[in-house]
Amino acid sequence: MPLHPDLEALLDMVDIATTAGKRPVIHQLTPAQARREFDAACAALDLPPEPLARVEALLIPTRDGQHVDARLYAPRVKGDGPALPALLHFHSGGFTVGSLASHASLCSALAARTPCAVLSVAYRLAPEHRFPTAANDAVDALAWLGTHAAALGLDAARIAVGGDSAGGTLSAMLALAARDDPALPQPCLQVLCYAGLGGRTDTDSHRRYGEGYLLDTDTIEWFYRQYLRDASDRDDWRFAPLLAPDHRGVAPALLVLAECDPLRDEGHAYARKLTDAGVAVTVREYAGMVHEFLRMGNIVAEAAQGHADIAQALVQAFQARAAAPAAMVHGCVTTLACA
After folding, report:
1. What span, in angstroms and rounded, lies between the C-alpha atoms of 254 and 172?
2. Which residues are CB-neighbours of 65 under 8 A, at least 6 positions away?
3. Torsion angle of the four alpha carbons 316, 322, 328, 331, in this order, in degrees rounded to the nearest 10
4. For 69-117, how does the pLDDT look when each residue is reduced to its tens digit (9 = 90+)?
5. Do the Cβ atoms of 89 and 105 come closer than 8 Å?
6. Mind listing the pLDDT tens digit for each residue in 193-242?
7. Catalytic residue chosen out of the listed positions 108, 165, 171, 205
């Protein structure tokens, strides 16, 4: 299917502005400049956050004695009814840009639509904090949520992990880490939205969509240079979960993919890897969409549809965990093309 016409118009405007020197190219900026540009673009493309009964700022301690900021979104106040299930969420941005603010609309939408609590984590960014800092922060956040869920009015037995792009990478890594560490809460679902999973830029989708479709291969490589310490980190499963030696026993997965995205093929490859390992997988590929479309509510209606589809998957996962909290779900991949 061709690129969605509203996105085609957006990309034409971006190209004109870039050519005229009115729009900076991310990979030609300093990290600090790139962060400001990213957050400004998010505010322009996305809808305002949805009003919720509870939006709470939190601090999560890390293993090296520091803290990361987090924000809890919930549709009701603590103590008002039974404990809520929770989605532990990690934002996009190539491990270099992105923030709690850039993903406030997405997180509040998921909290309202599921409904559930969403704990959004501002893991530390590169190049100030290189690999594996973000991965360690994600593990520390899951461990912290497990021990503090009750005090927050949340159900530690019903936790999902999820994120978009680099946040999806962290979520896939976290599902693998939790499987191997019984002291961690065991996620009931991993939500991987156009995630970076293979750590390479040589797939067919990279060749087809790596230029002119919002997320360029040059920008991806720039992100990798900020985050990774050296070339050997590309082969570490904490950065490229597709390379993990064994995927058996991880949480069921929902993969949200965009048709016109350089990362699309590694999403499909990860789905095959998981289903070959006996993991239940659903793939939703949205026709004519580009990377980051879930946060383009001002541009395409498919953003809201993506939110609804994720919320439905979360509801089903939380219900299944409540019915059989110790059960592991196995199955085959289900691929859904979303027009």
Report:
1. 11
2. none
3. -20
4. 999 999 999 999 999 999 999 999 999 999 999 999 999 999 999 999 9
5. no
6. 999 999 999 999 999 999 999 999 999 999 999 999 999 999 999 999 99
7. 165
Quote the pLDDT of residue 319: 98
Q: Which of 268, 291, 307, 309 is catalytic?
A: 291
Asked if residues 91 and 42 have their Cβ atoms less than 8 Å apart, the reply is: no
67-74/117-121 β-pairing: antiparallel
Three-state secondary structure call for residue 54: strand
Query: What is the end-to-end Cα distance of the chain in Å, rounded?
Result: 9
312 HSE (CA, 13 A, CB side): 9
Dihedral (CA of 243, 248, 249, 253) sign: positive
pLDDT digits (tens, 9 = 90+) for 4-50: 999 999 999 888 777 767 678 889 999 999 999 999 999 999 999 99
Give yes or no for a contact between 153 and 184, defined as CB atoms under 8 angstroms apart: no
Amino acid letter for position 158: R
Going from the C-alpha of 150 to that of each of 154, 200, 318, the distances in angstroms are 5, 40, 16
- For residue 49, the domain's CATH number is 3.40.50.1820
Number of domain units in the chain: 1
DSSP conformation class of 130: -
Of the listed 261, 265, 268, 309, which one is catalytic? 261
User: What pTM was estimated for this model as a whole?
Assistant: 0.95
Q: Tell me the residue range of the domain where 160 lies.
A: 5-338
- Rounded (5°) CA angle 234-240-246: 120
Under 8 Å between Cβ of 78 and 153: yes
Do the beta carbons of residue 104 and residue 72 sit within 8 Å? no
- Which position has the token pair 């530390």? 124
- Examine the residue annotation and report whether 291 is marked as an active-site residue of this protein: yes
Residue type, 180: D
Measured distance CA(76)–CA(110) in Å, rounded: 14
- What is the identity of the amino acid at 336? L
